């Protein structure tokens, strides 16, 4: 530092110049002594120049030294202030760039040590980083932890201020981590649950936990514009549908407080589908993120409603198919058997051999139709996936269906798959449809059912038969939902669907769904 070097130079001059001046005066006067008379003026000059001059020089240099020292102290104070400001700035910068609390504590402790120039240790919520030095320690306000430092000149006030800055930065990291965790949990809940009521219960539980709310509820709009309570927890809400008026009407447009501690937010996804209600303290400062979560709930409600409508359409399509099969299959066979029985009745007295042949045809047709009816009834019978689990349900269904349809089944199933309930249901529907198509159209003697986990990507179901096969599989609308409907269900889960078939070489149905 230039000022510090100048101060040392002035102090050196203060020690050397006065004696040097006095020595020069004495030497000069003594050198001229042979040429002068020794009188009182000689001693006066020696006393004046030899004493007063050095004293004045010393005093001037002392003043310069003091001014320089003040400048050095001011520069040091300014440098320390800048270092402290830089340390505080780095605290927030490191916190903003950190993904989690562990990373933030480590980066902040390292940054403080580098910026302040002395050992710093930091501990927050059980996470420790930095160099322990046994120095001054201050608690972090609002967090379980402390800040420890070993400055050359301990100053508790500064460390307390710094601890407040560190605590604020770490609390922002904790809050950001909580927000991300809540979003992740909400996203997982949306993927894992197809039942609307259970979905809303799970979402409400996570939102309540994030907002630290003591009560909550979800109300949905019905077709007539009534608000219908679907999930309510610790809230004094009507248990019956009601028309939104007053504050409830306002809640369909934006966040409003029903009372001092009860917040209502609209569930909007292009249009309002309901209201999210939360009861607790400090909800006003959480409104922006709660509004975002409410929009996620709204999307979940719309998707669930669309899924229900799709199921209704599928049921209607299945009913239409069953009616068509009865009309084209069983009804025509019954009509055929009725005609044959009439013919046998007329031939019984004239041609018993022909009558017996007609009765044999009736018996064969009847047996075939009984097998077809039993197969259709079994295919329509619901399977309790929750009771037996996905893999056991696949095993039971495939074996029982093969027994009903009259072919052998070979199973290759893993010990477990980590699919969501919705993905399991889609694969099970594909299995049902593929087996039904094989029995009805392929007439195989053997069917292979293989289920393979695909690491982190999901699972693959393969149903392969040695039946008759067919040409142009994509164009054939076979089975309950047909190949097109099976493809749509699989692709709606983000998966892939493929059918490979050749006449005389059997058929292979492949469906992949993600975790």
UniProtKB/TrEMBL annotation:
Query: Which regions form coiled coils?
Result: 349-376
Q: Which residues are in the Histidine kinase domain?
A: 321-515
Which compartments is it annotated to reside in?
Cytoplasm
| Reaction equation(s) it catalyzes | ATP + protein L-histidine = ADP + protein N-phospho-L-histidine
Listed EC numbers = 2.7.13.3
SUPFAM superfamilies, A to Z = ATPase domain of HSP90 chaperone/DNA topoisomerase II/histidine kinase, GAF domain-like
Report the top EC class in one word.
Answer: transferase
Record carries keyword Chaperone: no
A GO molecular function term, named singly, is:
kinase activity
Principal localization reads cytoplasm
Which UniProt keyword terms apply here? Answer: 4Fe-4S, Coiled coil, Cytoplasm, Iron, Iron-sulfur, Kinase, Membrane, Metal-binding, Transferase, Transmembrane, Transmembrane helix, Two-component regulatory system
Q: Which cofactor does it need?
A: [4Fe-4S] cluster
Residues passing through the membrane, by range = 16-35, 42-61
Q: Which InterPro entries match?
A: GAF-like_dom_sf (IPR029016), HATPase_C_sf (IPR036890), HATPase_dom (IPR003594), His_kinase_dom (IPR005467), Sensor_HK_TwoCompSys (IPR050482), Sig_transdc_His_kin-like_C (IPR004358), Sig_transdc_His_kin_sub3_dim/P (IPR011712)
Query: Which purpose does this protein serve, as stated in its record?
Result: Member of the two-component regulatory system NreB/NreC involved in the control of dissimilatory nitrate/nitrite reduction in response to oxygen. NreB functions as a direct oxygen sensor histidine kinase which is autophosphorylated, in the absence of oxygen, probably at the conserved histidine residue, and transfers its phosphate group probably to a conserved aspartate residue of NreC. NreB/NreC activates the expression of the nitrate (narGHJI) and nitrite (nir) reductase operons, as well as the putative nitrate transporter gene narT.
The protein's name: Oxygen sensor histidine kinase NreB
Q: Which organism is it from?
A: Thermus scotoductus
């Amino acid at each position: 530092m230039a000022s510090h070097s100048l101060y040392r130079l002035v102090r050196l001059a203060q020690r050397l110049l006065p004696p040097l001046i006095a020595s020069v005066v004495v030497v000069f006067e003594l050198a001229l002594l042979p040429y002068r008379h020794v009188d009182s003026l000689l001693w006066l000059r020696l006393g004046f120049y030899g004493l007063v001059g050095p004293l004045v020089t010393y005093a001037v240099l002392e003043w310069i030294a003091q001014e320089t020292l003040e400048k050095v102290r001011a520069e040091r104070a300014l440098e320390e202030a800048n270092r402290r400001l830089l340390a505080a700035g780095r605290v927030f910068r490191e916190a903003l760039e950190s993904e989690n609390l562990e990373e933030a504590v480590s980066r902040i402790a390292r940054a403080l040590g580098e910026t302040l120039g002395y050992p710093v240790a930091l501990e927050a919520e059980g996470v420790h980083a930095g160099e322990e030095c046994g120095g001054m320690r201050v608690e972090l306000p609002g967090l379980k932890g402390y800040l420890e430092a070993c400055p050359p000149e301990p100053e508790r006030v500064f460390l307390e201020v710094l601890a407040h800055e560190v605590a604020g930065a770490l609390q922002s990291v904790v809050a950001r981590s909580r927000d991300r965790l809540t979003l992740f949990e909400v996203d997982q809940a949306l993927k894992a649950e197809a039942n609307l009521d259970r979905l809303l219960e799970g979402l409400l539980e996570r939102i309540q936990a994030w907002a630290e709310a003591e009560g909550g509820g979800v109300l949905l709009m019905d077709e007539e514009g009534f608000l219908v309570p679907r999930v309510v927890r610790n809230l004094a809400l009507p248990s019956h549908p009601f028309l939104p008026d007053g504050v409830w009407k306002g809640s369909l447009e934006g966040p409003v407080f029903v009372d001092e501690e009860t917040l209502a937010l609209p569930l909007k996804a292009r249009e309002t589908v309901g209201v999210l209600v939360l009861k607790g303290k400090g909800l006003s400062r959480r409104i922006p993120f709660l509004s975002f979560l409410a929009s996620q709930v709204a999307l979940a409600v719309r998707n669930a409603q669309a899924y229900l409508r799709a199921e209704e359409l599928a049921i209607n399509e299945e009913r239409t198919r069953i009616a068509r099969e009865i009309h084209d299959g069983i009804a025509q066979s019954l009509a055929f058997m009725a005609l044959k029985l009439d013919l046998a009745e007329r031939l019984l007295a004239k041609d018993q051999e022909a009558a017996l042949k007609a009765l044999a045809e009736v018996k064969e047709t009847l047996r075939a139709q009984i097998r077809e009816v039993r197969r259709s009834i079994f295919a329509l019978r619901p399977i309790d996936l929750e009771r037996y689990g996905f893999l056991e349900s696949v095993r039971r269904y495939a074996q029982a269906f093969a027994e009903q349809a009259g072919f052998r089944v070979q199973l290759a199933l893993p010990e477990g798959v980590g699919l969501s309930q919705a993905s399991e249901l889609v694969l099970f529907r594909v299995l049902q449809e593929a087996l039904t198509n094989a029995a009805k159209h392929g007439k195989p003697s053997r069917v292979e059912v293989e289920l393979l986990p695909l690491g982190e990507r999901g699972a693959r179901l393969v149903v392969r038969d040695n039946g008759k096969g067919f040409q142009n599989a994509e164009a054939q609308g076979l089975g309950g939902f047909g190949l097109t409907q099976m493809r749509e269900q699989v692709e709606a889960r983000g998966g892939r669907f493929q059918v490979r078939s050749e006449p005389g070489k059997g058929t292979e149905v492949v469906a992949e769904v993600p975790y």
